[in-house]
Amino acid sequence: MITGSIVALVTPMREDGAVDHAALAKLTDRAVEAGTAAIVSVGTTGESATLDVAEHTDVIRNTVQVVAGRVPVIAGTGANSTAEAIHLTAAAKQAGADAALLVTPYYNKPPQEGLYRHFRAVAEAVDLPQYLYNVPARTACDMLPATVERLAAVPNIVGLKEALGTLDRVRELVALGLDDFALYSGDDATVRESILAGFHGTISVTANVAPELMARMCAAAVAGDAATAAELDAKLAALHSALFAEPNPIPVKWALAELGLCEAGIRLPLVPLDPAHHETVRAALRSAALL
């Protein structure tokens, strides 16, 4: 089981919106060398919603090549069409991904039975370890713990990224007592408390800009060292907030550009970070000793 800090890697783009594979390789190497436990390629933070299928697969394939087996690569392959999710997951497997991360179907608001059948269908169609991803703020769909428990019985569904953002949900999921089923936080602000409560790690936006500090904080929390985890998390707290000043990945891409790690390219309908938030993000970078 993967534990600790997993980076939800951005897909760097040039000013014209073209994918910048050279910058992608640089960011991938930086994350691995800083101690990330795994890389999520082309998830929400990787702008999966605006990449076409060929681009999506190319980013996964190139990330796998740069990683070269040093850590697992988990490909974002979710869709609100079950057939499309199966297609993307099969393409990710062909591209060399070690696992897939599938968000709950967005917009069409399936009931819990629909969620169960959707994820089971993808798992049965593609022989690849698969992680569920619950993020109701983006999908208008909340996968309840009882549905997670049902899906955990499907052999190649191996974990969950939970981004509801409440510790009550964290405690509900831990209380299920699911053996060999990974639980990851998708809410940077509550990662430390979630791990100390029984989660196994995080799939993190903050880890893009502060990969080493996030890895150390999560490692301390996984080890049960609450004091060290709190000390390290205090240095990250401003980032956890500032990187969500506007919808993800707008602030994190601006922060990476400010650090000189990539250009500030982003695709419509997202736009560059509003200048009103620039100093907030800069201050957060300074608080983490990154700028």
From TrEMBL:
Gene encoding the protein: dapA
SMART domains membership: DHDPS
Subcellular location: Cytoplasm
Chief place where the protein resides: cytoplasm
Keyword annotations of the record: Amino-acid biosynthesis, Cytoplasm, Diaminopimelate biosynthesis, Lyase, Lysine biosynthesis, Schiff base
Recorded family membership: Belongs to the DapA family.
Pathway: Amino-acid biosynthesis; L-lysine biosynthesis via DAP pathway; (S)-tetrahydrodipicolinate from L-aspartate: step 3/4
Coiled coil: none
Organism, scientific name: Pseudonocardia humida
Domain of life: Bacteria
Record-given protein name: 4-hydroxy-tetrahydrodipicolinate synthase
Function: Catalyzes the condensation of (S)-aspartate-beta-semialdehyde [(S)-ASA] and pyruvate to 4-hydroxy-tetrahydrodipicolinate (HTPA).
Entry EC no(s): 4.3.3.7
